[in-house]
Amino acid sequence: MKILIVGSGGREHAIAWKVAQSPKADKIYCAPGNAGIAEVAECVDIKAMEFDKLVAFAKEKEIDLTIVGMDDPLVGGIVDAFEVEGLRVFGPRKNAAILEGSKAFSKDLMKKYNIPTAAYENFTDPEAAIAYLENAKFPIVLKADGLALGKGVLICNSLEEAKAGVREIMEDKKFGSAGNTMVIEEFLTGREVSVLSFVDGNIVKTMASAQDHKRAKDGDEGLNTGGMGNFSPTPFYTPEVEEFCKKYVFQPTVDAMKAEGRPFKGVIFFGLILTPDGPKVLEYNARFGDPEAQVVLPRMKNDIIDVCEACIDGTLDQIDLQFMDDACVCVVLASDGYPVAYEKGFPIQGLDSFKGDDRNFCFHAGTKFNEAGEIVTNGGRVLGITALGKDLKEARANAYKAVDRVSFDNKYYRHDIGHAIDEFKG
Ligand code: AMP
Ligand code: GLY
286 - beta bridge partners? Predict the structure, then answer.
């Protein structure tokens, strides 16, 4: 089979790496890809939002299956663009990707179908939002409705902060049109857990759980980032939590989308928070997480092509989804200064040490080849150093050992990825 992967981050590297293990994959392309993906796929210089070019490429190369990693093209309707041309593509259509593309939509869906989530109101008028805040309890959470690179959520401790947040999002349009509508919701406390799942329009099969570290600095301080590292499984996703979510969250969400005439096929990423009142949904994503894919896919035993095809064909019930007992930890190596300002273009040493290693992986995010043919840093998040281990502690030790195998100027990473592992009291 010929496979095309759309995207250019660590997540797409993990997907491409997993696809490359399938005996069914004869040729893999990735658009636009990065320097690491180039080891397992032929990178094609087409951007993820250039649907016409991607469709033309897929037709020309007779691509059998396209897997879309990123949120923007999914929310923008890439799956519809491929399907219209009779091309097979893994991911939700535009009318289903709205589950991630509009927080107001997803909140209304959860309310209508009694899926546990924070209490909220949606606003399209900044004055109405401010009037509502006058009587609100703090802290409170403001969310831009649309995609905002994971940065459209503000936790406000006072009325002043919240008013300024409304102005930023709705009037100054800090996140562009994503802020035309805003959700204001109750602040929840608890441990966060990510559960990725495959969905075929009718049924859902969950993958292993994971826990992300979103903040830039040790001790979960500093600004929110796309994710500085994570681990899988998370011990906080206990059998009781799983049982609850199966009953009240996972299948109910898939059923709700179907009932709304928006059947979902692809990956639903459930962003959960384990509150004192039980698990609640913080957010949905309509794709693999980044870096969740980097810790979940190395543990998956199935051929990813089989699973993607089953989602497309509505035959996921025939897939016995299985994960290794081994744990996996990913430590993101970033450019110092991320997520604000950072320099790029520094050569990276030590990458070859991962070649042929089947327990430690170096997934590339922001990397590229310079004119001299060297691999250089090309983004805020540069590499996801990922390791398996017989349990979480061993995987974490292995990941930090592997971190030392790579060097580049301005290399920055958190030293406490997986600290939650030690906090679990069973
Ligand atoms: P989201 O993009 O909706 O997942 O929000 C990003 C991050 O903001 C989450 O991972 C949480 O850490 C935090 N967050 C979002 N909603 C809430 C909430 N209602 N209460 C507390 N924290 C939240
Ligand atoms: N790591 C969080 C996300 O992919 O949205």
Answer: none
* Tokens linked to 105: 């939509």
Let me know: does 118 contact 188? Beta carbons within 8 Å: yes
User: Does the Cβ of 20 fall within 6 Å of ligand 1?
Assistant: no
Q: What is the pTM of this model?
A: 0.97
Nearest Cα to 266, choosing from 103, 104, 94? 94
pLDDT in tens, 309-358: 999 999 999 999 999 999 999 999 999 999 999 999 999 999 999 999 99
**d(C-alpha 250, C-alpha 257), whole Å:** 11
DSSP 177: G
d(CA 69, CA 80): 15
Say if CB 388 and CB 301 are below 8 A apart.
no
| Tens-place pLDDT, residues 164-175 | 999 999 999 999
Pairing of strands 191-200, 265-275: antiparallel
Ligand 1 atom with minimal separation from the 271 CA: 4
Distance from residue 94's CA to the centre of ligand 2 (Å): 19
Q: For residue 157, which ligand has an atom nearest its CA?
A: 1
Within 8-119, strands assigned E span 27-32, 42-43, 65-68, 89-90
Using CB atoms within 10 A of its CB, is residue 371 exposed (0-12), middle (13-18) or buried (19+)? exposed
